[in-house]
C-alpha cells in the first residue's frame, strides 16, 4: 500500500496503478497527487517512444464470483490500491470500460446480486533505458504538473456480468440469494455442454426468467446481454473474442516511475493517505449508499402517490441528502491532492470526517429517520388494507368528491398527523448553509431523534386510531350500497372521522364513550337511509360551517349526539342545522 510507505521510500519506488479504463500508455505523464493523467504532454516524441519499446506476451485468464456489492469487494476484483480508492471516493478519478462496474450499485434492499468477473491479459509493454536516458522535452520537469511517468503497461480485457434478482417483502431473501448464487456459478458448467440446448430443470428455467444481467467490459459487443440466457451465450464466446482481435486489448495495469529520479526539479509525491483514514472515508460513503437504497425503497411505495404530505417530506430528504453527498465528495477531492503534495496534513481529511460524524447526516440519524418513515408507511399500509374498497384521496380529491352533485353525504377517515413539522428535515437544510465544513463545532446542528416522539409511538393515539377505524368501517359497511353516501380515506395526532353534507357541513368526531341511551329519546323520525352496526356507544360530534374556499371561517359549533340502539338507524333533527345519528 502506498499509504504504508515512508516519504523517502515512496519518492523513489515505482507504483502500480489500476488503469480503470483510462488511456494510460507508455510515456504518458501522471500526477499521483490527484490520480490524473496529463494528455498531450510527454518527455519524448512519438518516434522515440515507439523505438526500442519492449513488448512480450503475458497470457493469463481469471474467473471470479462475488455476492458482495461493497466498494471494498469491487476494489479487490479490480486490484485497486487504497490510495486510488480514496481518489475514486472523492470523485477525482473518471473510470471507463469495465471499471464502470464501480458505479453499478444496488438501488434497493429488495435486490439480490451476484457478479461474475472474467479477466484475460495478452501482452506487457515497457520503456527501456534508451528512452529514459534521452529526454526530448526536459522543460516538462519545470512545469511540475506531473509526479510520475508511465513506464510499463499490462494489456488485456475485463468483463463484469452483474446478475440481479428483485424480490418482494413476502419472499425469503436468504433463499433467493442462495438460488441466485447457485445459478450464476453454474454458467461455466452449462457452457461446457457444447452448442446444444442447455439442460435445465423446470424450477431452474422459472428462476432464470426473473434474473436480469448488466454487462461492463472492455470488449466490444454488438449487443450487451440483459438476461441470464444471453449472458450464458456470451460467456461461451469470451475466450475467443480477445484472441480474434488482440489489438483491441486495453491497459489493465500500469507502472509509474517517479519523475524526480530523472530530474530533481520535478514535482514529488510527498505523502500518502493512511489506510485507516481511507477505510473510514469508505465506511462513510458506504453508509450513504445504504441510506440511499432505503430511501429508494420508500419512494417506490405506492402510498407515496396517495399521501402528498409524505411525498413532500421524502422529496425534501432526497434534496438535502444529494446536496450533502456532493459537497462531502468535493471536500474530500479538495484536500487529497494538497495532502499528497505536502500542502496540508492528514488532519484536514480527519476534520471533514469528524464534521460528518457530528452532523445530522451521520449514519445513526439518517437510519433512524428512514426507519421511522418505514414504520409510518407500515402503519398507513395496514390501515389502508383494513379499508379495502374505500377510496383514498388527498385534500384535492376530497374537494372534488364534496362538489359531486350526486353525493350529498361524505364520511371521511382522516390521517391528521402526516403534515406535522419535521425537525430533523429542518436540521438537514440548516446544516447545508455555506461554510459548514469550516466549522468543527457543529453541536448546534445536532438534533436528538429520540427526543422527538413520533405520533405513532403514542399508545393513546394508537388506541384512538383503532376506535376511529372501527367506527368508520361499520358506517361504511352499512351504507356501501347507497350511491348518495361516499366514504373516503383522507389525510389531513393520529386519525379522525369527519362527515360532510352539501359541501359546507363538516361533522367531526370529538370523542367516544360507552353509554347506552334508551331508544325512546328519538321521537321524530326524519330519515332511515343512514345505518350502521356497531357496539352500543355514545358519540359526540361537532358541527362546523365552512366558507366556499373550504377553509374554516364563521365557525358555528353545536353538539350533535349519535346514539346506537338496537333498532335500525334513524336520523333525528331535534333543532335546526343539527343531526343525531342512531346506529344498530
Automatic annotation (TrEMBL):
Q: Output the superkingdom of the source species.
A: Eukaryota
Q: Which residues form the SNTX thioredoxin-like domain?
A: 396-502
Q: Describe the location of the Stonustoxin-like helical domain by residue ranges.
A: 284-377
Alphabetical list of InterPro entries matching this protein: Cytolytic_pore-forming_toxin, Stonustoxin-like_helical, Thioredoxin_11
Pfam families noted in UniProt: Stonustoxin_helical (PF21109), Thioredoxin_11 (PF18078)
**The protein, known as:** SNTX thioredoxin-like domain-containing protein
Amino acid at each position: 500500500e502506498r499509504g504504508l510507505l515512508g516519504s523517502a521510500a515512496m519518492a523513489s519506488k515505482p507504483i502500480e496503478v489500476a488503469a480503470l479504463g483510462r488511456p494510460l500508455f507508455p510515456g504518458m505523464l501522471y500526477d499521483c497527487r490527484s490520480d490524473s493523467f496529463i494528455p498531450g504532454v510527454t518527455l519524448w516524441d512519438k518516434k522515440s517512444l515507439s523505438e526500442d519499446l519492449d513488448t512480450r506476451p503475458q497470457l493469463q485468464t481469471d474467473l471470479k464470483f462475488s455476492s458482495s456489492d461493497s466498494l471494498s469487494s469491487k476494489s479487490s476484483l479490480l486490484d485497486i490500491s487504497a490510495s486510488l480508492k480514496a481518489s475514486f471516493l472523492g470523485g477525482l478519478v473518471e473510470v471507463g470500460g469495465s471499471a464502470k462496474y464501480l458505479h453499478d450499485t444496488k438501488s434497493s434492499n429488495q435486490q439480490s446480486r451476484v457478479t461474475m468477473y472474467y479477466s484475460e491479459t495478452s501482452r506487457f509493454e515497457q520503456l527501456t533505458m534508451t528512452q529514459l536516458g534521452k529526454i526530448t522535452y526536459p522543460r516538462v520537469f519545470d512545469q511540475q504538473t506531473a509526479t510520475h511517468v508511465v513506464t510499463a503497461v499490462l494489456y488485456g480485457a475485463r468483463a463484469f456480468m452483474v446478475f440481479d434478482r428483485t424480490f418482494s417483502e413476502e419472499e425469503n431473501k436468504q433463499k433467493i440469494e442462495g438460488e441466485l448464487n447457485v445459478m450464476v456459478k453454474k454458467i461455466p458448467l452449462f457452457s461446457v455442454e457444447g452448442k446444444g440446448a442447455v439442460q435445465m430443470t423446470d424450477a431452474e428455467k422459472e428462476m432464470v426468467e426473473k434474473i436480469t444481467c448488466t454487462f461492463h467490459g472492455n470488449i466490444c459487443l454488438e449487443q450487451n446481454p440483459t438476461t441470464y440466457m444471453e449472458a450464458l451465450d456470451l460467456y461461451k464466446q469470451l475466450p475467443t473474442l480477445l484472441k480474434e482481435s488482440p489489438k483491441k486489448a486495453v491497459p489493465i495495469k500500469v507502472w509509474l516511475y517517479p519523475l524526480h529520479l530523472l530530474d530533481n526539479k520535478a514535482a514529488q509525491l510527498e505523502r500518502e493517505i493512511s489506510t485507516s483514514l481511507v477505510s473510514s472515508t469508505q465506511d462513510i460513503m458506504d453508509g450513504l449508499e445504504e441510506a440511499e437504497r432505503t430511501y429508494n425503497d420508500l419512494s417506490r411505495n405506492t402510498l407515496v402517490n396517495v399521501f402528498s404530505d409524505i411525498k413532500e417530506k421524502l422529496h425534501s430528504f432526497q434534496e438535502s441528502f444529494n446536496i450533502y453527498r456532493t459537497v462531502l465528495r468535493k471536500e474530500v477531492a479538495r484536500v487529497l491532492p494538497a495532502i499528497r503534495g505536502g500542502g496540508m496534513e492528514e488532519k484536514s481529511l480527519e476534520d471533514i470526517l469528524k464534521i460528518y460524524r457530528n452532523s445530522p447526516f451521520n449514519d445513526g440519524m439518517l437510519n433512524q429517520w428512514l426507519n421511522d418513515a418505514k414504520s409510518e408507511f407500515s402503519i398507513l399500509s395496514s390501515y389502508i388494507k383494513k379499508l379495502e374498497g374505500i377510496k383514498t384521496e388527498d385534500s384535492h380529491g376530497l374537494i372534488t368528491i364534496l362538489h359531486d352533485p350526486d353525493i350529498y353525504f361524505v364520511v371521511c377517515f382522516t390521517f391528521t398527523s402526516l403534515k406535522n413539522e419535521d425537525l430533523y428535515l429542518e436540521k438537514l437544510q440548516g446544516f447545508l448553509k455555506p461554510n459548514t465544513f469550516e466549522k468543527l463545532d457543529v453541536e448546534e446542528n445536532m438534533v436528538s431523534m429520540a427526543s422527538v416522539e413520533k405520533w405513532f409511538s403514542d399508545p393513546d393515539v394508537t388506541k384512538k386510531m383503532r376506535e376511529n377505524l372501527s367506527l368508520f368501517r361499520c358506517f361504511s359497511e352499512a351504507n356501501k350500497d347507497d350511491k348518495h353516501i361516499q366514504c373516503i380515506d383522507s389525510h389531513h395526532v393520529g386519525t379522525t372521522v369527519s362527515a360532510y353534507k352539501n359541501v359546507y357541513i363538516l361533522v367531526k368526531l370529538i370523542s367516544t364513550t360507552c353509554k347506552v341511551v334508551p331508544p325512546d329519546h328519538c321521537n321524530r323520525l326524519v330519515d332511515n337511509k343512514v345505518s350502521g352496526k356497531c357496539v352500543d356507544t355514545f358519540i359526540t360530534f361537532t358541527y362546523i360551517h365552512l366558507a366556499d374556499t373550504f377553509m374554516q371561517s364563521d365557525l358555528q359549533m353545536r353538539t350533535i349526539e349519535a346514539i346506537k340502539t338496537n333498532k335500525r338507524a334513524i336520523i333525528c333533527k331535534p333543532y335546526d342545522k343539527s343531526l343525531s345519528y342512531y346506529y344498530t
